[in-house]
Amino acid sequence: MTIASTEQTEPDSRADPDSKEAWEPKIVAFLCNWCSYTGADLAGVSRIKWSPHVRIVRVMCSGRMDPTFVVKAFAMGADGVIISGCHPGDCHYSEGNYKALRRVHLLKRLLKGFGISSDRLRLTWVSASEGDVWADVTNEMTETVRQLGPLRLER
User: Fold this and answer.
1) Nearest-CA neighbor of 32 among 107, 111, 88, 108?
2) DSSP label at 79?
3) Cα gap 42→87, rounded to integer Å
4) What burial letters (b/e) apply to 70-83, b meaning 16+ CB within 10 Å?
């Protein structure tokens, strides 16, 4: 799989606010089953408004996140990726979130090598009782990606 980025230097015509089809970011979020997914669910049942541009993929643990999942998400059209897990020390699998932290540091360097801004990847900790935190994370990430513009990858 070859990935090369041509980060946007000129405004994309799809991003024109007067256009009928204004560009909106596509963000994929990988959430741990035990904390972050439950926190996102709490945000939903509590009717806390969070970005509709985030699509959730539930994984058993943030430490089980294979780095190729992130690369594949970008290759398939995601403009940003969030990885969210339990707070350090609260992992259902003891140290999965520390493993995720090491992988994200590696992935950010890898993405930089591809010419993709490391701001397009975010690691965060959200517990099951933090629906409001989940909403804030998604809204902040959406604004960050919106400012970066669409990710254009050469295929």
Assistant:
1) 88
2) S
3) 17
4) bbebbeeebbbbbb
Which residues of the chain register pLDDT less than 70?
Answer: 1-21, 155
Quick one: which of 57, 44, 52, 50 has its CA closest to 24? Answer: 52
pLDDT at 153: 86
**In the structure encoding, which two tokens stand for residue 100, read together?**
């995720």
Q: Which domains does the chain have, with CATH numbers?
A: 25-146 (3.40.50)
Which candidate, 58, 53, 76, places its Cα nearest to that of 144?
53
What gap in Å lies between CA 141 and CA 40, rounded to an integer? Answer: 15
Which residues, other chains included, contact 149 with Cβ-Cβ below 8 Å and sequence gap of 6+? Answer: 7, 8, 11, 12, 15, 23
Alpha carbon of 63 to those of 33, 59, 81, 145: distances in Å? 11, 9, 15, 24
Q: How far apart are CA 3 and CA 114, in angstroms?
A: 7
